[in-house]
Amino acid sequence: MGYQEEIGSGREAFAHLIRAWHERNGWSHRILPGLAEVLDLGRIHSSQVSMLRNRKLASPGPEVFLALGRINQWIAAAAVAEGPSALASHPELLEALVAGSVPLLNDAAGVPLGPGDFLDIFVGQRQPPAAFDLRIAATEAPALSFALAELLTAGRPWRLCREAVLAAYPAEKTQRRERFAAVMAGQKDFEAAELESELLDLKSTLAGLGAAGEQELSTAQFLTVLRRKAAQLTASTGASGLSSELGAAIRQELGT
After folding, report:
1. Percent of the chain whose predicted confidence (pLDDT) is above 90
2. How far is CA 16 from the centre of its chain?
3. d(C-alpha 35, C-alpha 37), whole Å
């Protein structure tokens, strides 16, 4: 791979990383710039955040990586340092971090990524943390949503499982819970980016239902399970003949 292809691959991975980080925490584009300014950790504009998310910022300056790395390290240390008290006079930032403050940690040692790590990812010298590098193609999201609903209900009707599954789902925001319930009921599908950002909480839901402990199944393994189940469901529920099979099953229920 030439250097241009390497950098192109890095920019794509970086865009996914920033997007997944925001969606996992429920942040708007204003949060990182706000933290950088208030905490004096560097400088990054909301327009730069947007362009990074969409792979449109080809040559960000060093202050961008400095800001991202320092913010990430601050978030990781906030629980044992000054924490939210530093944001007491900035309610929007404080509220955002209370709702979501998951840092990006190195896979091997659990150390928060710093400025140099962000730069290495951007230029293709290293991969993002595995938990934030679970890229899902837009074309596979509907099948994975179907597989997820079948997995978390064990193939049973949603109305019989709704209470237990929603109790195990850890997200607290009403919008996310309603979206999750609609996917479980088969009314909607997760979009690829939504599903990527939901994976950690969906794995926790599996643990909450007593199906697998938090440490028994990695996020990557959970996604592999979903893909395998999606393939099985696709093979067994193809459109060909489905209508006639459904009609026959209904006639049997009617006793005719």
Report:
1. 48
2. 10
3. 5
pLDDT less than 50: residues of the chain: 80
**Whole-angstrom distance, CA of residue 219 vs CA of residue 225:** 10
State whether residue 102 is helix, strand or coil: coil
Residues 6 or more apart whose CB falls under 8 angstroms from that of 81 comprise 74
Structure confidence by residue, pLDDT tens digits, 123-162: 988 888 877 776 788 899 999 999 999 999 999 999 999 9
Looking at 87, 117, 132, which one is the last position of a domain?
132
Q: Is the dihedral of CA 147, 177, 72, 21 positive or negative?
A: positive
- Please state, in angstroms and rounded to a whole number, the distance separating the CA atoms of residues 197 and 181: 16
pLDDT of residue 9: 81
Residues 115 and 175 occupy one common structural domain: no
Are 147 and 119 members of one domain? no
Residue 62 is predicted with a pLDDT of: 93
One domain for residues 233 and 247: yes
Are 114 and 152 part of one and the same domain? no
* Domain boundaries, position 201: 138-254
How many Cβ atoms sit within 10 Å of the Cβ of residue 239?
6
Question: Do 97 and 187 share a structural domain?
Answer: no
| Residue where one domain finishes, among candidates 132, 148, 180 | 132
Instruction: State residue 230's pLDDT score.
Output: 94
pLDDT for 108 equals: 74
